[in-house]
Specification:
218 residues; 8-stranded mixed sheet; alpha/beta; 21% strand; Rossmann fold; globular
Length: 218
């Protein structure tokens, strides 16, 4: 269900633009590390949603920088409010489409990419919109550090199987593939809003961790 637009969303985003919210980022003139003003590890979540995941991890890892990409204004504003309320200084939010990532980050700048319950886009004609499609994997390869990793969680088995195959076909190395990922809350992971919902319904959560291989980006 699409979230109804909130009148307060845009003013809140405007108030925190250039402090927490980044509306435009060009790595040639404004590298993301300069925005954080440190050289800490960089974790990128694509599709931040209402911010439960990124805020949960950021609060447990104050010496790690977190970047959340979210395109929907009201959803971004809800996440932003949580960042403000929790006084988290290691989060930046970017309101852009994921297709623009190559213009936002420098080569090998990101240490970890997180995909949490992304839209599966089940129709074949929408394959290029899936965040694990070959085109997106090429972008991840470009911005991900050589020692970095891609971590993906979903409740959708068909999307998960597709993602596993795409990663293999595009030269990624699968370090972990779990079709019934246990509930985990630690410094490396927290359940998202969707994850809690699906677990309460008794649905298995699928998880994978992949690293770059020799074939990536070819």
């Amino acid at each position: 269900m699409r979230l109804r637009k909130k009148a307060w969303a845009k003013p809140l985003i405007d108030d925190y633009t250039d402090r927490i919210v980044i509306t435009k980022l060009d790595f040639l003139t404004n590298p993301i590390r300069d925005v954080f003003k440190n050289n800490n590890k960089l974790v990128l979540e694509i599709g931040t949603g209402k911010g439960d995941f990124i805020c949960g991890l950021a609060s447990r890892n104050p010496n790690v920088n977190f970047i959340g990409i979210e395109q929907v204004e009201t959803v971004l504003a809800i996440a932003l409010k949580k960042v403000i309320d929790q006084e988290l200084r290691n989060i930046k939010l970017i309101r852009v489409n994921a297709n623009e990532m190559l213009n936002m980050f420098d080569t090998k700048e990101i240490d970890v990419i997180r995909l949490n319950f992304s839209d599966p886009w089940p129709k074949s004609r929408h394959e290029d919109r899936r965040l694990t499609s070959p085109e997106f994997l090429k972008m991840y390869h470009n911005i991900l550090h050589d020692d970095g990793c891609l971590i993906f969680k979903t409740d959708n088995r068909e999307f998960f199987d597709y993602s596993v195959e795409m990663l293999k076909e595009n030269g990624w190395v699968l370090e972990d593939v779990n079709y019934n990922y246990p509930l985990t809350e630690n410094n490396e992971d927290v359940p998202t809003e969707y994850e809690k919902k699906f677990r309460n319904m008794g649905m298995p959560i699928h998880y994978l961790k992949a690293v770059k291989g020799d074939k990536n980006g070819a």
